[in-house]
Design a protein that fits this description.
- Helix content is 75%, strand content 2%.
- The protein is built from 13 helices and two strands.
- Among the domains are: 83 residues, no CATH class; 80 residues, no CATH class.
- The longest helix has 37 residues.
- The two termini are 25 Å apart.
- The protein is elongated, with a radius of gyration of 27 Å.
């Protein structure tokens, strides 16, 4: 229970500078060689299963889109290869759907996943940041936009993946269970579904290879590969440069926690002192 004496002591502690920014420096809160968790183990496992199933789907889906291409016949050269391709394609498809369902559950019931999901929802600031970054790249603006945990590119990639997974899963299931699809829809709907499934796969593949791979791995700053997907950690230098707003949030949280700990310690010290004096009397 906090008493009036405690509040008076707290006011004196603040007035004396005990809780000032100078008393609690950045070096006190963050070590120079500290690494921050960017991806948890659960998120890294999701990522590995996701890209494994995705590239398996691309490889096993190529014969359906480029059936006459010479390299397809070299990849699937033995008699039962096309049948085996279909089995592997369906397994990878079910795996991808499973990852999508797990992600939904993860952001709904995991505190960490729910907190990150709220941060990855697009907002008007993302549009401003995209314009500012474009002007900065043209040399029309000096200061780059400052990002939190997720910048507008990462948000776009996340929601593009979510949309693409939904479309691929829906159209894939309709092609897998063609009899049920024909019973529910005209035959021409299935033809459109087949086209959408194929071209969405090509679009997703190009987006991963051209956009995601460059931004995450082939970027000169991290070439030949970012190791975050393996270690899940990011250095202080990378955090300050690429996610300054998140870094400031971490500093604030740690500062608030340290202030509370110092005030508690001070109050306990004074109480013990008063108790000792009272017993001596």
């Amino acid at each position: 229970m906090i008493r009036d004496d405690d509040l008076e002591l707290l006011a004196k502690a603040k007035a004396s500078g005990m809780l000032s920014d100078e008393a609690i420096s950045e070096e006190t809160l963050v070590a120079e060689d500290e690494e921050f968790v960017r991806l948890t183990l659960t998120e890294r496992i999701q990522h590995v299963i996701l890209f494994t199933s995705f590239f398996t789907l691309v490889l096993t889906g190529l014969p359906l889109v480029f059936s006459n291409a010479p390299f397809i016949h070299k990849l699937f050269f033995f008699p039962t290869s096309f049948w085996l391709r279909g089995i592997i394609h369906r397994i990878a498809g079910v795996t991808l759907i499973g990852v999508g369902i797990f992600q939904i559950c993860y952001v709904m019931w995991s505190p960490h996943g729910n907190r990150d999901f709220r941060k990855i929802i697009p907002n008007p600031q993302d549009a401003k940041d995209s314009i500012n970054l474009f002007l900065c790249n043209l040399g029309l603006r000096e200061q780059r936009p400052r990002f939190g945990k997720f910048n507008f590119i990462e948000k776009f990639e996340y929601w593009a993946l979510a949309w693409g997974t939904f479309i691929m899963a829906l159209t894939g299931l309709m092609l897998w269970f063609q009899e049920a699809s024909i019973a529910l829809f005209p035959i021409w709907v299935l033809d459109i579904v087949r086209i959408v499934h194929g071209f969405e796969a090509i679009l997703a593949f190009l987006a991963i290879i051209i956009w995601h791979m460059y931004n995450v791995h082939l970027n000169p700053e991290v070439f030949p590969m970012s190791r975050i997907w393996i270690t899940g950690k990011i250095s202080k230098e990378e955090m300050v440069e690429h996610h300054p707003l998140e870094y400031e949030e971490i500093l604030k949280e740690r500062r608030d926690k340290l202030e509370i700990e110092r005030v508690k310690a001070l109050l306990e010290e004074v109480r013990q002192k008063k108790s000792t004096e009272k017993n001596e009397e």
